[in-house]
Amino acid sequence: MQLSEQELVRRDKLTKLRDLGINPYPADLFPVKQTSKDIKSDFEEGKKVVIAGRLMSRRIQGSASFAELQDSEGRIQVYFNRDEICTGDDKSKYNDVYKKLLDIGDFIGIEGELFTTKVGEKTVMVKDFTLLSKALKPLPLPKTDGEGHTYDEFNDPELRYRQRYADLVVNPHVKDVFVKRTKLFNAMRQFFNDAGYFEVETPVLQPIAGGAAARPFITHHNSLDIPLYMRIANELYLKRLIVGGFDGVYEFSKNFRNEGMDRTHNPEFTAMEIYVAYKDYNWMMDFCEQLLEHCAIAVNGTTKATFGEHEIDFKAPYARVTMADSIKHFTGFDILGKSENEIRQAAKDLGIEVDNTMGKGKLIDEIFGEKCEGNYIQPTFITDYPKEMSPLCKEHRENPELTERFELMVCGKEIANAYSELNDPIDQRERFEHQLELAKKGDDEATATIDYDFLRALEYGMPPTSGMGIGMDRLIMFLTNNQSIQEVLFFPQMKPEKKPLAISDDSKAVLEILTKAEKLELADLKSQSGLSNKKWDKSIKELTKNSLAKVEKTDDGLFVGVV
C-alpha cells in the first residue's frame, strides 16, 4: 500500500501520541450528554456540556483557537484556550497534543461551558478534551478561497457511492435523503399497523424463483445439495399466509434481480408488498392514494414534491385511466378484441421493435411503454390490463380479456402495482402453463417454472384478496428529487474498484508523454522520454505488459498508442 504524504504525516503523529502515553483509540465510553442540536435549541450561558464529534475545521491563533465540531445532528463552534485547558504550568496538552498532533477528521470528546462570542455565535468553551479516534486518511473536504470560490468538492458520483462514509461526512445534505428514507418506511409501517395489518418476514432463499418475471441470482445449499434462488418477489409466500388465516400481511423485502443496472434499477432493491383479504383492486386504489398522501406529508411536511422540472402532488384522489383507453388516446389503436398478429402489426406500424418471441401481453406492454407511459406526470392509476400481461391477477368481472389490475404512474415511471388476486387454483394453473409456453418460445420475461406448492395452497382455499407492491427506492427518489437510484441507496452495487498499477516512475513519465499525444512513433517516443536504452526497454515492456500501451507495426513504421 502506497501512502500519500499526508497519510505518512498522520501515522507519524499516531506514533508520537502513543509515545506520550495517549491511546488514539480508547476502549472506555465517553459520557456524551448533549448534541450540537441540543446545545443550540436549549442554549444557556455558562451551562456545562459534554459533547463529542469529528473535528472539521480550526483556526489556530497562538494560545487560542476556534474550531468546528460535527456530530450526528450538525456542527457547533468550539473555542480552545490554552490557559482554560492547561490550568497549571504544563501547557503540553494544548501546545503539543491539540496544535501539533490533532488533525481535521479526528474524533474528540469535549467537556466545556457555553458562551456567546462578540459576533453572537453560540460556542462551547473547552475545559478539557479527549482524543477518541485518530483519522489516518484526510477527509476530501471542499476548500474556499479568499474570494469565496469553492473547489475540490467531493462530488464525483462514483467516488461518492463507493466511499459513502466520506460522502456522508463532507456532504451533509446526503444524510438528509436517508433520514427522509427512514421517515418514509416509518410512516408506511405506521399506516399499515394502524389499519390492523401484520408485518411478516418470508424467505430470501427460495427453491423456485416465483412471484414475478425476472432473472434470478442462483446459489447452492451445500447441506441440502440443492440450488436456491435469491428472492425476486415475495408475493407467493404472502398469499400463502392469507390462505393460512391472516386478514392482512405486509413485508418490506429485499429483492434481487440479475438484470441490467441504470439510473432507476439496482440488482438489489427494496419493495413493500401488502395483501388484504376480502378486498378488491378498487378498494386498493383508494387505500394506495391515502397511503401515499400520508407518506408524502410525513417525509416532506406537504403532499407536494419536486422532481426535476415537475411539481408532483400526492394529494388524493388520483386520475384513473384504463390501459386500452390510454393506448387508444396516444396511438389511435384499440387493443380490445384484436388478435396477437393484429397487435404485432400495429406495433410495427407505430415504429416499435418487435419479434416473434413476444406474445400478446408483451406486445401490448411494449406499445404502452413506448407511446403512453412517459406522458403521466401526476400520480395516475392505469387500470384493467390484458390477461396475458398478468398471470397472477383475477379476470375482470366485466371483460374476460382483461384483469383487475392497476399500476400507479408518476413522472412516467411505475411505483406501485396491484391486483384483485387470482384465487381460482384451476385458472391459476392454466395461466402458469401458458407462461411456460411463452418461455419456451423465447420470452425471457415469462415465468419458466410452476410453483406447485403455491397451487396446492390455493386448492385449500384463499379468500378474495387484493395485493399491492411498491418500489420503495423509486418512491423515495420522487420524494427527495433524486434522478438516480444510487443517490437513495447507502451502498449501491458498483463495478470492482480498479486498483492503481504499481509501475515505475520512468514508465509513468513515458505514459504521460504518450497520453498527451495518444499515438507516437516508437523512436520519437523514446527520444522524448530521454531514457537510456536499458531504462527505455524496461519501461516500454512494463507499459505493454500491464495493457497501458500497445506497439503496432504499420507500413509507415512502429507506432505506440494508449490502450
Automatic annotation (TrEMBL):
Transmembrane segments: none annotated. It comes from the Bacteria. Its cofactor is Mg(2+). Keywords: Aminoacyl-tRNA synthetase, ATP-binding, Cytoplasm, Ligase, Magnesium, Metal-binding, Nucleotide-binding, Protein biosynthesis. One of its GO terms (cellular component) is cytosol. It is found in: Cytoplasm. Mg(2+) 1 binds at E407, E414. Mg(2+) 2 binds at E414. Its main location: cytoplasm. GO terms for molecular function: ATP binding; lysine-tRNA ligase activity; magnesium ion binding; tRNA binding. It catalyses: tRNA(Lys) + L-lysine + ATP = L-lysyl-tRNA(Lys) + AMP + diphosphate. Its EC number is 6.1.1.6. The keyword Ligase applies. It is an enzyme of class 6 (ligase). GO terms for biological process: lysyl-tRNA aminoacylation. Homodimer. Belongs to the class-II aminoacyl-tRNA synthetase family. This is Lysine--tRNA ligase.
